[in-house]
């Protein structure tokens, strides 16, 4: 189900501005990879290149390679819509469709991909996705209520249910807990531990403790004073990154002496 992504010498431009420079990394299947670093260092931009979401901004382009189990995501003839089906995304702020019911929210991505479902199949998919997002027991008696009627933490889990309903291989999460309270954050973190059994997960977070708690591997991005674009300083197993990183810049950032 989950897939490996190999990125080599990836550069991301918005027009003439290079936002990300020369990133090379391997993202292992069935793991959580955390991307940390100061604001503006390109980690969210890099995350969006993994499902070609950055392309919605005019003038955006990529040089280098991002390969998912042998498929070059930027290869000729590769459909960005199909890439986004396989590589789902959960954003910083919960964004359920406000006019849609909870069950319609879950099915929105599937319908966008023109999959026709019978009523029993749709009901089964809604239940399976909500169970996968650990939300079913809280909402099963009000599936016809608007998604916007849920609390912030529930809305974020609804967005995760919507993402997994289309059966992606990879889940990208861009600061998924930054708008949530501590209890909702814990629920999402517990959910990540469960989801990585089936998915490859990449999370951008500003929260060092969260990166340490949820991820198997951590990559540290930064931008230096000489005007160099965002780049990957180092990447390693999370325990190593937080106890004995190889670069002083990483140590300074993790210990709070920087950025």
From TrEMBL:
Domain named ABC transporter: residues: 5-248
GO molecular function: ATP binding; ATP hydrolysis activity; phosphate transmembrane transporter activity
CDD domains listed in its UniProt record: ABC_PstB_phosphate_transporter
Listed PROSITE patterns: ABC_TRANSPORTER_1, ABC_TRANSPORTER_2
EC numbers: 3.6.3.27
InterPro entries per UniProt: AAA+_ATPase, ABC_transporter-like_ATP-bd, ABC_transporter-like_CS, P-loop_NTPase, PstB-like
A biological process from GO: phosphate ion transmembrane transport
Keywords tagged on the record: ATP-binding, Hydrolase, Nucleotide-binding, Translocase, Transport
Top-level taxon in the UniProt lineage: Bacteria
PANTHER family xref list: ABC TRANSPORTER I FAMILY MEMBER 17
Protein name: Phosphate ABC transporter, ATPase subunit
Source species of the chain: Beutenbergia cavernae (strain ATCC BAA-8 / DSM 12333 / CCUG 43141 / JCM 11478 / NBRC 16432 / NCIMB 13614 / HKI 0122)
